[in-house]
Amino acid sequence: FNHLKGVCIYSDAQFYIYFIVFSVVSAEVLQEVFGYLGSNVTLSSRATPPWNFSKIEWSIFPNSTWIATYRSGRKNTERVDQFKGRLSLNTTSGDLTIHGLISQDALEYTVLLFHQSITVHKIRLKVLQRPVEPSIQMIYTKVQEGRCWVLLRCSSQDEGVDLSWELKPPSDSVYRMTGPGKQGAVLISFSNKEKTEVICTANKTTAKVSAAFTSQCGSSACPRLREGLCFLFGFIAGLLIFLIYCFKDRIGILT
Predict the structure, then answer these.
(1) Is 54 helix (H, G, I), strand (E, B) or coil?
(2) Global confidence as pTM
(3) Any stretches that span the bilayer, and where are they (predicted)?
(4) Contact in structure between 112 and 118 (CB atoms under 8 Å)
(5) CA-to-CA distance for 52 and 243, rounded, in angstroms?
(6) pLDDT of residue 74
């Protein structure tokens, strides 16, 4: 909405009213912005370029304390102890950046932009804890008929997250499963010689964070043989290792 300010002039001979407009103040709906502890956030003035501001004033609610100003070509971002060394004011756009967010920065901010008119914009900043990176654990892996089968489990410590999977390169053989609470699993199949990156993403309402896992089965001695033969070869190899360990003293005497 707009507020028009003017001056009224009266005459004895005739009643004249001269309404001289000298400023227009435009106000907007309160905007909500999210930021994360320890990170940076930019509060937009929402000004439409190109504007050459004669004055910029950022303040905080409820006492309208100035925290950053631009007046007569001079910029001041060191007005309040809480924000000292943590503010950057863009005098071209009017945007204000807060560095290294702390929980006390969760306030209502107001910016006044002085040009040919005065623009007012209000922002409510919410400071949140950044989501914890999910963890990926390999549960099972197997090589069969030249393909690698891998079962992975992804879990998150955060509440209210949705887990999703992404494969690079994509695979046609992907079987997704959801577990109780904050866990999810995926069973994938890919060529034995390929290297596949599996990404698990924990999505929340306001943010998402991902973890990556690279899976490569490597070569197998019997990818194309039947499982019975593979078991037999493995049994014989294990038996030989066992016999060598048991009779290592005699082997040493003979040598």
Answers:
(1) coil
(2) 0.59
(3) 225-247
(4) yes
(5) 87
(6) 95
